[in-house]
Specification:
Elements (H helix, E strand, L loop, with lengths): L8 H26 L14 H9 L6 E3 L5 H7 L3 H8 L33 H14 L6 E6 L6 H12 L4 E7 L2 E2 L2 E2 H4 L6 H5 L5 E5 L3 H19 L2 E6 L17 H8 L3 H11 L5 H24 L20
Length: 328
Amino acid sequence: MGENELPEAAAAREWLATMTLIRRFEERAGEMYAKAKIGGFLHLAIGEEATIVGSARAMRDDDYLISTYRSHGHAIARGTNPEAVMAELFGRVDGCSKGRGGSMHMFDLERRFMGGYGIVGGNLPIATGLALGADYQETEDAVLCQFGDGAANQGTFGEALNLAALWKLPVVFLCENNLYAMGTALERSESETDIHLKARSYRIPSKVVDGMDVVAVERAVRSAARAARKGGGPQFLELRTYRFRAHSMYDAELYRTKDEVGEWMHRDPIALFEARLRADGLLGDADLASLESDVATELDAAVAEAEAGPWEPVEELTRNVYANGART
């Protein structure tokens, strides 16, 4: 299959369905947050669906995925039931982290989704550790570590990349460069705005990928993961993408213009992929209407289950908080 060639029909439609599910899930989560059904922080990945689905579809079942606090879509793409993700947002026991993680700390060990992390750059050393474990056990498991451009300024970035390169570990570092570290533009925080070049200083192969093109992402990640698991050591991809919503629901979004956001929305990854499927005769109006209907039904059920789900009993609130029952 060529670098820009579409996957076979069934796979292509599944990719579109998952991207659409993630988009509508995020929109519904935003609505529930506005209604005070969801508390704490909420970071939406609307606009970044191609980086999420493309990378997940390039993975094997035994590979590990670790992401940032913007991780609802990663959990869904890896196979976690949307009902469990929504329940987690609602803080219910039925959530994928038993209601204790909330938006920023999704986790699903069964699917080797090793979680979202609230600390910027905090997942990078963990990814290197997971890759060290895979190397030590002589498996062919690869680790995919997704992080934002802001993490490239953290000390953990250099430490993790250095050890991964030194020990030739099977990890793929995926920088989702959405041009803003929270509310700070890339050129105001990075002396080197081509982030992938930083990886080369550690002798890690790196390249730039169009993060709005799900096919380009899948092909690049698949190739990088193959190289990593076959002894090629760490790989680095800079996925250039854009988030259409603010950094978080608390963000007044004063650091960019509506015109800039509008320009990027012309490159909506879902609309671009949908257009490709239509052009190749793989998608029609009826198919799209059915897809949207199925997604709406699934999310209606997810919200209803989350609202009806049980809270953790009060007597359980200190469980796993204090060691050996000590409260000092």
